[in-house]
Specification:
heterodimer; A: about 400 residues; mainly alpha; globular; B: about 450 residues; alpha/beta; six-stranded mixed β-sheet; 13 helices; about 25% helix
């Protein structure tokens, strides 16, 4: 690797102060430190430092996302192959999936990366690794049929308005990827919801197989009318807890497989990078609210209220949201007690929004964004309680 | 006397390589000694000597400008060889070239019996005159106390647990009676005298068990006086407690017993790059070259630290151990650039977090370099700092509050409880020097409190 390092080092003169491209130093620095770790030593403060840096921190989230992403690619392809009545072997599904996913991923990184570099150059700081995660998350929470100009628009909104206008990673209060997703959801509802967007149909309309409906289980569940039961209708449409768990059904690219998400969650919890308090709190909140609905809704014309907690956890973006979005440390509260409150409320709100308001089947996205806004308030209240317990030490 | 047990479980075990052995060796007399005024917290030094002056052991070299009763005496007899200044005419060192035959100033003595009848004011006067008043530190700022203030309690610490410092078994050896006499002196100064030692320290539990008041369990900085005070205190009036280290207390006793300014000191040489790692009996102000026994060539770049690895002062092999320093650390000062290291398993990467495979090796010792290991970023609220803080501060909130200029809120969050241990700075993945932000804010509060 020495030749690569020498090549990179040789370019440094153009980027340092006085060089032709000095304004682009953050770009050079990012490319250099991604390849070769920094050799800087401490100047003030503790003489020794932990090995953990934000690059490692963020890359672990990216690693946790890999199973979900790999499966998402396969599944997006598989659904397209199924709808078109084409071969459903793994290879053709993966190839088909890559054809869907890669352009979305590339556009996300190209456009989002562009904004990151622009802001880093103008503010004169190093490029922040936080975008690696946002750039991975965003393509996984959009429908496979999303037009690429919307990808560009969505990630631009997420990065610029969701993060950079507040000062960049660490200073934002909303999850940037979710902000971009919510922007698209409210601006272009026809592209982001309904039954037609979750599977890319690659053949002519008249050749689509008869059994293809395209609806997600969440949309189906929200529309079931009494006296039918939700479980009955879902089963009739071919959904079971087992295939919801494994994830072979239509939905946003990365959110269908609970199994893969749990693999990611295991890595996040084992490494301590994702907060288990937020995850467990959210599950508890979801189960609690579902149970309240189950027990207290009585005879109703909305059978969705009677759907059990397990189904709710398996459907839609619930698990993906609470594992990868709610645990974003920047937009979540800091204190341990606050994390429980935050998680519980996300779970509760997500279930309320998705069941009571059928116009917003993706309750978890709204629940997390709403709680992002409340996170500083929760922290403030908890912190004041902690401060009151301290023996005052003032002058 | 009842023994109190304190448990501090938030701090973490660095498991640093390069600990000194318990072996002790007496170093030969150095050619010169020095005091380092800039390393003494919160004093403004006013020189009492100039280059070329002849001094004895115990001659004042400089005094504290705001209170000239607080004086700093020469740890050697000879000629003032050099007065060195740093940036902004900061007084960095007063170097004394030692005489062959050293002479000393004599001070008033006190015996166990005369101590009983000596009043507090007289005693304070003797300590001021004998130049050892500066051995005391007053909380919350850890500054040299004003001789007029009364103190709610004095904490005597036996185990400086910052890696690495001399062991009590070495510096107490043969000095236990003096240590006990020192405690009697302290009892004249304050109604409450606490003697604190680590639960790991078997030596003191055998030798001075009856004198111990607090047994502290936990990793660095559990045994630092600030942490003990925070864990022990029950009301705000205790915030102004004083502290003194056991080795300094022995000097105090020595001064009053012998009437001579005591200059003996036990130090350690440590750190993974140090060639010999052990305890040395030497004197205050010893040149670092003497402690390293002339072995000052290394096959890789090194950092020489006077003091511990978290809070020590960077210097070089030509430097001196000042009145505040009890250790020399030699650490590797360079790191190889690694290819794509952030995606590697990291079996060789020590970390407080569990983000590297190294987390599986629970007992391995690590050789730390001075590498920062990353670029500076904004705080991402990972809360690792809050997890290691020994005094329940949420350093990330405190940092943001202080950076926004709100010192009042900062104090409410615990700024003055901060023991400036440096653990928050160590763990921060965004490489924010939290400790430095707290230290500078505490310093400006100290200035405000004084004016």
């Amino acid at each position: 690797m020495k030749w690569l390092k020498d090549k990179l080092d040789a370019q440094e003169k153009h980027f340092v102060s006085g060089g032709k491209l000095e304004k682009l130093y953050p770009l050079f620095e990012a490319v250099h430190t991604i390849h070769f770790s920094t050799t800087a030593v401490t100047k003030i403060g503790a003489h020794i430092r932990d090995s953990l840096d934000t690059k490692r921190y963020m890359i672990i989230v990216v690693m946790a996302l890999l199973p979900t992403m790999g499966f998402g690619v396969y599944n997006a392809g598989l659904q397209t192959q199924l709808a078109g009545g084409l071969s459903t072997d793994t290879l053709s599904s993966v190839l088909q999936g890559l054809k869907i996913f890669l352009p979305i991923l590339l556009v996300t990184f190209a456009v989002g990366g562009f904004w990151e570099v622009i802001f880093a150059v103008f503010r004169g700081h190093e490029i922040n690794e936080g975008f690696l995660v946002s750039g991975m998350l965003f393509p996984l929470i959009v429908p496979p049929t999303i037009p690429l100009w919307q990808v560009a628009l969505g990630i631009s909104f997420g990065v610029v308005v969701g993060k950079e206008v507040f000062g960049g990673t660490g200073r934002n209060f909303l999850n940037p990827a979710l902000t971009g997703r919510a922007f698209l959801f409210f601006s272009y509802p026809a592209y982001m919801s309904g039954d037609a967007v979750w599977t890319l149909v690659s053949v002519a309309k008249d050749r689509v197989v008869d059994t293809f409906s395209g609806a997600t289980p969440l949309a189906i569940a929200a529309q079931v009318e009494a006296p039918n039961s939700v479980v009955g209708v879902l089963t009739e449409q071919g959904f079971s807890l087992s295939n919801l768990f494994w994830g072979t059904y239509a939905g946003s690219i990365g959110e269908t497989s609970v199994f893969c998400i749990l693999l990611g969650a295991a890595l996040l919890i084992a490494t301590g990078i994702g907060s288990w308090r937020v995850m467990v709190g959210s599950v508890l909140g979801g189960v609690l609210m579902t149970t309240v609905f189950n027990v207290f809704s009585g005879p109703t014309n909305l059978p969705f209220l009677h759907l059990g907690p397990l189904w709710h956890l398996m459907m839609g973006g619930f698990m993906f949201g609470i594992v990868f979005m709610a645990t974003d440390p920047v937009s979540a509260p800091d204190l341990k007690a606050s994390k429980w409150v935050y998680g519980l409320l996300i779970g509760i709100l997500a279930i309320i929004i998705r069941t009571i308001n059928p116009a917003y089947p993706e309750g978890v996205m709204l629940a997390i964004l709403l709680m992002n806004v409340f996170a500083p308030l929760i922290d403030h209240v908890v912190l004041q309680r902690k401060v009151k317990k301290r023996i005052p030490n003032v002058i | 006397m009842t023994m109190k047990k304190l448990t501090i479980d938030t701090a973490f075990d660095l498991r640093l390589q390069g600990a000194p052995s318990a072996d002790v060796e007496t170093l030969e007399k150095p050619k010169s000694v020095a005091l380092i005024p800039s390393s003494i917290p919160f004093i403004k030094p006013k020189l009492s000597v100039k280059e070329g002056d002849k001094v004895q052991i115990g001659t004042p070299l400089f005094v504290h400008k705001h209170d000239d009763r607080i004086q700093f005496l020469s740890p050697g007899s000879g000629v003032v060889e050099a007065i060195q200044y740093g940036p902004k005419r900061r007084l960095d060192a007063v170097v004394i070239c030692l005489d062959e035959q050293e002479t000393q100033v004599s001070f008033d003595k006190i015996t166990q019996t005369t101590l009983e009848t000596t009043d507090r004011e007289t005693l304070i006067g003797l300590l001021l005159k004998g130049g050892l008043w500066s051995s005391f530190r007053e909380f919350p700022f850890k500054k040299i106390p004003n001789p007029e203030t009364s103190c709610p309690s004095i904490y005597v610490t036996l185990d400086n647990d910052e890696p690495f410092h001399p062991e009590a078994s070495v510096y107490l050896d043969g000095r236990i009676d003096q240590f006990k006499f020192g405690l009697d002196i302290l009892k004249k100064l304050s109604k409450k005298v606490h003697v604190c030692s680590s639960t790991q320290n078997k030596y003191v539990q055998q030798k001075i068990a009856s004198n111990l008041t607090h047994r502290v369990s936990g990793n660095y900085p559990a045994n630092q006086a600030g942490t003990i005070l925070y864990t022990d205190k029950t009301k705000a009036s205790e915030n102004g407690a004083w502290t003194i280290s056991a080795q300094e207390l022995i000097r105090l006793a020595d001064l009053l017993q012998t009437g001579c300014y005591p200059i003996e000191r036990v130090v350690v040489a440590a750190g993974s790059s140090a060639k010999v790692r052990k305890h040395y009996t030497t004197r205050v102000g010893v040149p670092i070259q003497t402690v390293l026994k002339g072995q000052t060539e290394f096959d890789h770049p090194v950092r020489v630290v006077a003091g511990g690895v978290y809070t020590g002062r960077a210097t070089d092999v030509t430097g001196y151990l000042g009145s505040e320093d009890f250790a020399v650390h030699i650490l590797p000062n360079s790191i190889e650039s690694e290819f794509m290291s952030f995606v590697m398993p990291g079996a060789d990467k020590p970390s407080y977090s569990r983000a590297f495979v190294s987390t599986l090796f629970r007992t391995k010792k690590w050789a730390h370099t001075t590498a920062i290991n990353g670029g500076e970023r904004s705080c991402i609220a990972c809360t690792k700092c809050a997890d290691v803080c020994p005094v329940d501060i949420q350093p990330q909130f405190l940092m943001k509050t202080l950076e926004a200029g709100d010192v009042e809120d900062g104090m409410a969050l615990g700024l003055l409880d901060c023991v400036t241990c440096g653990l928050c700075t160590y763990v921060c993945p965004s490489k924010i020097d939290l400790d430095h932000i707290f230290t500078t804010n505490r310093a400006s509060l100290e200035q405000e409190a004084r004016s």
